Amino acid sequence: MLSERRLEVLRAIVQDYVGTEEPVGSKALTERHALGVSPATVRNDMAVLEEEGFIAQPHTSAGRIPTDKGYRLFVDKLAGVKPMTSPERRAIQNFLDGAVDLDDVVARTVRLLAQLTRQVAVVQYPSLTRSTVRHVELLSLAPARLMLVLITDTGRVEQRLVDCPAPFGETSLADLRARLNSRIVGRRFADVPQLVQDMPESFEPEDRGTVSTVLSTLLETLVEETEERLMIGGTANLTRFGHDFPLTIRPVLEALEEQVVLLKLLGEAKESGMTVRIGHENAHEGLNSTSVVSVGYGSGGEAVAKLGVVGPTRMDYPGTMGAVRAVARYVGQILAES
After folding, report:
1. Which residues contact 199 (CB under 8 A, 6 or more apart)?
2. Among 115, 207, 280, 305, which is most buried by a count of CB atoms within 10 Å?
3. Residue 295 and residue 105: Cα distance in Å, rounded?
């Protein structure tokens, strides 16, 4: 276990290195921070921190920089989440409040996160596997043609055309719409197949074929849309950190192009808490020089998806964590109110 003073020295090294991009020496530390001890004592503390693997000496520089292990300890023990200021919170709310639909919410969230953190922003669309049905609308387009509109609790809208085996009257359509909504509104997608399986039998024999066709289309829609979707933005921000990536930025950019990698990176949406993965904690080799800060968002206290940022390990962790958390909270509120 490190003493309180050595933890303070480590905190100072992380803060200075993130702020200046320069390796940090003992003299600079004692000048910039009220550590209450001599440069010689700080040098001794730095030697212990280096021996324990929390800091390292790059090249022949006199200063030290944090390692992945050092950043990990900083995030776990030493860094509070920096709260957003009132003007920042108002700006977030005003920007997100202007969204017209779910696609717009996600697009605005990506843009906002990239601007606030100056990192790469990644936002996962709410997963239909964790969604519930808000409403099903059935519209008659022709005597034997309908449109099925499925609306989820997260504001997602799916439309499908249904070609019926026989003409279907307005009275039958209204009856089907009412019965369908009474059974499945507020229920999870996973429960819907069981809830509707016996519905065709309760209709007149001449209508059963159409009812079965409508239900098949509904169930296909639920299955089709369970694949995960992501939006990414701010990739150009990485070019500002060229020297933070040891060899080249290319492996990072290639990894960011792979949807599967990004989904793994964000983690399971059911883990709604803040997750920070630093450097080699990221399983994908191309992202070993990056850190990922992610959190779940959703309505009613349950996470339906994740959002986060990817940037170099030399990151303002308290500020980034504060921005990610604040944005997630506002997106959740918008989904709850939509």
Report:
1. 179, 180, 183, 211, 215
2. 305
3. 17
